[in-house]
Specification:
Layout: H1 6-19, H2 25-40, E1 47-49, H3 51-58, H4 63-75, E2 79-82, E3 91-95, H5 120-130, H6 139-148, H7 153-165, E4 169-170, E5 174-175, H8 179-209
Length: 221
């Protein structure tokens, strides 16, 4: 059983999430579900999981998405995943300690399959040096990023002008630590707004097409 500070661990891992542009919301949701099971197991060194339970907790509906994300979390050193091919025995998980205090435990475990692990401290420090993404260099960088994500230039300009005007802070208060993640959230919000507007338009059209069954055809048009 590991000695893990619940709050410090979550703070540390979410700092890491904010700097890692490879992650998407599904990875984070899956990690949180695994963390909850780890917590329920009193932070055991290793613990078994049930796929259906984890998919339910993380709101993942596709088995292929689940397997893809859990393998990527393993590959990116957020967890160690031991898949099980036995239908009566779940897969096994080992979690790393992401506490941010000076007493942070650096995991020295070497898995049996020979996978080389990077020290957690070194992994975080490397990302600090590489991914200084608090804000883009210029508008062109934002436009290039939006193009890469298949979004129109006008949306990139809206994003840049908005955050440039408030000093690259969320809500004008909290400094952005990864502008690309903030841009992806902007895209998700834009998609949500667009979807709601489409649904509203369809609903209005349907209302306009409704014909009263009690219409009096003797009335003049």
């Amino acid at each position: 059983m590991q000695k893990v500070n619940y709050i410090k661990h979550l703070k540390g891992v979410f700092i890491q999430f904010s700097k890692d542009s490879r992650l998407n919301p599904t990875h984070i949701s899956l990690y949180v579900a695994l963390f909850q099971i780890w917590n329920s197991n009193r932070f055991m060194e290793e613990f078994y999981i049930n796929r259906e339970e984890i998919m339910s907790f993380s709101k993942i509906g596709s088995k292929s998405t689940y397997h893809k994300c859990i393998k990527e979390l393993n590959h990116w050193k957020y967890i160690i995943y031991y898949p099980s091919h036995n239908p009566f025995k779940g897969s096994k998980i080992k979690m790393f300690n992401f506490e941010t205090s000076s007493k942070q435990v650096v995991d020295s475990y070497s898995p049996k399959n020979g996978q080389a692990l990077v020290s957690i401290n070194k992994h975080i420090q490397t990302n600090k040096n590489i991914n200084k993404l608090d804000q883009p260099k210029n508008e062109k960088g934002v436009i290039d990023f939006f193009k890469k994500e298949n979004w129109p230039i006008i949306e990139a300009q809206k994003f840049f002008n908005h955050y440039q005007g408030i000093g690259w802070k969320v809500g004008g208060k909290t400094k952005i630590v990864n502008w690309q993640s903030t841009a992806r959230n902007w895209m998700l919000k834009a998609e949500e707004i667009k979807s709601k507007e489409t649904q509203k338009s369809v609903s209005q059209n349907q209302d306009n097409l409704k014909i009263s069954k009690n219409k009096n055809y003797n009335e003049p048009l």
